Fold:
Amino acid sequence: MNIKVKWLRNQLMSLKLDGMIVSNPVNVKYLTGLEEEGILIIAPKENIFITDSRYIESVNRKLTIDDEIIAYDTKKMTKYDYEGIFMICENIGFEERYITYEQYQNYLQTYQVNLVETEGLIENQRIVKEEQEIACIQKACEITDSAFEYIIKHIRKGMTEKEIAFEIEKFMLLNGADKLAFETIVASGTNSSMPHAVPTNRRIITGDIIQFDMGCQYKGYASDLSRVVFVEDMADEYEAVYDFVLEQQEKIQKALKDGSNIKSVIKNREADYQLKNFPIMHAFGHGVGLDIHELPFLKSNQDCTLRENSVIAIEPGVYFPGSFGIRIEDTYQVTKNGCINLTKCVKDKTIIHLLEERA
Amino acid sequence: MNIKVKWLRNQLMSLKLDGMIVSNPVNVKYLTGLEEEGILIIAPKENIFITDSRYIESVNRKLTIDDEIIAYDTKKMTKYDYEGIFMICENIGFEERYITYEQYQNYLQTYQVNLVETEGLIENQRIVKEEQEIACIQKACEITDSAFEYIIKHIRKGMTEKEIAFEIEKFMLLNGADKLAFETIVASGTNSSMPHAVPTNRRIITGDIIQFDMGCQYKGYASDLSRVVFVEDMADEYEAVYDFVLEQQEKIQKALKDGSNIKSVIKNREADYQLKNFPIMHAFGHGVGLDIHELPFLKSNQDCTLRENSVIAIEPGVYFPGSFGIRIEDTYQVTKNGCINLTKCVKDKTIIHLLEERA
Structure:
């Protein structure tokens, strides 16, 4: 049997659950490799993937005998087929964070069992990565690094944020990325003060600050990178903030390793922000894997211990609404002794020069 | 007050609800224009958008006094602020199809009210489009048409499905699209037999059938277009199937107008499929708007009446697993007298010729 499904079966046994309905598509991919729409059902006698006719062929192409997963077409299943899945079962786990209230009611009707919350059982298992998972993230990081190094040498006079974002995405997709990990952020001038700015038609001008936030997926695994550059010149006001943000990132990196308590590390950084009277606009970081934002979150309310082979993005930022913002972010592998940076592109204050407009 | 929020307030009154929590981001955009993360709360005395510090600035830039919507930063709100929102209220509507079971439990705790299912109240309102909504869809359709006309003249020998998909997406994004409406499908040869194929590294060869399914967003509104072309030559086996699919689309188009019953129209088409022994792998179509798939769905279980100024995609398809598939899809505006095709690119059987490889 598929080794991850086997792991899940053991977990369910120790939780005294007779089975589980896995609805989160990322968890389905983690367990089975399948990206097709559907739900994975761990039943006493078999593992079932219920999909529909649009996907049944590609699902059957991907599953091997060793997976021990049977694919069913939902349209060919009757009420009695559904009720038979958990026959004589009592308690079945479900993912309360991924099914809607309406689906919950439907599951109750369909499966006629007692549904038990599983509280991120699979998400917690995903925190510690295997070697080949880290290799995929590393590859995604390399592609992202290259895209950044490329773009800062190829911004032409008159280019808009949107055009720059598009060039970044094109570079990643043509250089090995399967997909984008999220929509690329290119925020220039005062737009940089919004942590989640969407690229606009604003044209880059001399003196601008440009905030980049970019990442791609390789075999399903994400990278996450943020950088700030200055166009032709760097105003004095940016310097101290840049140094502060970079220092915060370094302090977090140095404090985090296998066994670190996230809460205490982040509490210290929040104290630095409070001393400067800088508002804290978002978490200091997050896990990266099949999801771009996953466990663990680097927040002061997370009283949990970091573990070896977690992969995390550390991304302190400082924002002055209506004025500007600076965020620096890298993706790291957590080890016994510290954090290894998987995104390696230049992090010194960088002044870029615009190319001439195309004829 | 924002006219759509006013409409919603009237609906709630007639449903005897004291307020509503709008969680579906597409519904929030429909009502307010906001695309930032957050929830819209219709409370007895005010309209509130609860977001967080990442978005508060851009939300405040977008909202006008006329909207009569106040933006709050969730982090600055206490337990008592939340409980105060629906003070003295009894029944509050919620979107049971968009919040998770966990969120439902949180809402109960947070707002201390009785939550009542609203059964797609806003989604149903979105079915009939206003003039400027149709204009946006029309623009998205024009961009998509142009991308198709462009790509079939620019496929080079040796190109892969992925590369072709990327060129289509690039064309749309550089020619006015804000975003893609979904990930472009380019499925060649036997891959075409999977309705939801993902582009692969398979290279196009002479004799191939290529299935395209593509669309973009303009100001949030989507387009949806599917076409099939043949490379250098068309095998006989394709001809009859192509004719059948095109005929099905024409029959549906002719049968649909303001007042048509969807169920009876689609039942007739299903009878044609059964006569030929063709499997029905997906719905015959769907509404198109802020969501790429929205109400109404063209399925024989939809016993509902089509209305003027709905926008629908009609997309019959026939698939032979492991062999090939053909789907033809256009986006239409429903009128009093029929359906107006908003996607206008060539629909005759098209044989394309490959360009030479780049030096």
